[in-house]
C-alpha cells in the first residue's frame, strides 16, 4: 500500500504540473466575476492539504482563510500558496514513508466525512487537489483578470 501511495504522489505532481505556470500576475484571474480567483483557489489548496494533515497528527500553524469563506482577495501571494501546497504534500510523503501500513487502514473521525480510514482521507486530499488543479487550468485558458 505504501508504495502505491508514494506512486500516487508522483502522479499528483505530474498531473498538476500546470500549477507551475501560474505567476503572481494571475492571482485575480477568474472565469467570471462571481467565481473564485486563481489566488484564492491556490491558497485554499495549500490550506486544505495542511489542515487535513492534522487528522494524521501532522502539526501545522496554517490557519483557514478560505474554506467556508468568500473570495475577498485572499491569495495574492502565489509563491507562498505554492509553497504551502509543496509543504503539505512533503509532510504527507514523510508520513507515508515513516508509517506502518496498518496506520493507513486505521479509522479516524472527521467533521466532514464522519468515520473514515486514513487511506480514504489521503485519497480525498488527492481528489481535492486534482479538482482545483483542473479549475485553475480552465481559468488559465479561458479566464481573465477581474478587479
Task: Describe the fold and architecture.
There is one protein chain. The protein is mainly α. The protein is 55% helix and 8% strand. It has 5 helices and 4 strands, in the order αβαααββαβ. It has helices spanning 2-15, 38-53, 78-98, 101-105, 118-142; strands at 29-30, 107-110, 114-117, 144-145. It has a two-stranded antiparallel ribbon. Helix 1 runs parallel beside helix 5 (118-142). The protein starts with a helix and ends with a strand.
* Helix-strand sequence: HEHHHEEHE
What is the overall shape? Answer: globular
The average pLDDT value, as a whole number, equals 96
What count of helical segments does DSSP give?
Answer: 5
Content of β-strand: 5-15%
Structural class: mainly alpha
Provide the spatial order of strands within the biggest beta sheet.
1-4
Distance separating the two termini? 46 Å
- Number of β-strand runs: 4
Sketch the major β-sheet.
2 strands, antiparallel
| Uncertain stretches of 5 or more adjacent residues | none
Backbone CA Rg: 16 Å
Percent of residues in helices: 55-70%
Topology:
Blueprint: H1 2-15, E1 29-30, H2 38-53, H3 78-98, H4 101-105, E2 107-110, E3 114-117, H5 118-142, E4 144-145
Antiparallel strand pairs: 1-4, 2-3
Keywords:
single chain; 147 residues; mainly alpha; two-stranded antiparallel sheet; two-stranded antiparallel ribbon
Quick recap:
The protein has 147 residues and is mainly alpha-helical. It is 55% helix and 8% strand.
Amino acid at each position: 500500500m505504501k508504495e502505491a501511495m508514494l506512486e500516487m504522489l508522483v502522479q499528483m505532481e505530474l498531473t498538476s504540473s500546470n500549477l507551475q505556470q501560474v505567476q503572481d500576475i494571475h492571482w485575480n484571474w477568474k472565469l467570471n466575476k462571481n467565481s473564485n480567483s486563481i489566488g484564492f483557489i491556490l491558497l485554499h489548496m495549500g490550506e486544505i492539504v495542511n489542515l487535513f494533515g492534522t487528522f494524521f497528527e501532522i502539526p501545522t500553524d496554517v490557519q483557514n482563510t478560505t474554506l467556508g469563506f468568500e473570495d475577498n482577495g485572499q491569495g495574492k501571494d502565489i509563491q507562498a500558496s505554492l509553497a504551502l501546497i509543496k509543504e503539505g504534500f512533503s509532510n504527507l510523503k514523510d508520513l507515508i514513508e515513516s508509517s506502518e501500513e496498518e496506520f493507513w487502514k486505521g479509522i479516524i473521525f472527521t467533521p466532514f466525512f464522519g468515520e473514515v480510514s486514513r487511506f480514504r482521507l489521503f485519497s480525498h486530499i488527492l481528489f481535492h487537489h486534482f479538482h482545483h488543479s483542473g479549475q485553475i487550468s480552465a481559468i488559465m485558458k479561458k479566464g481573465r483578470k477581474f478587479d
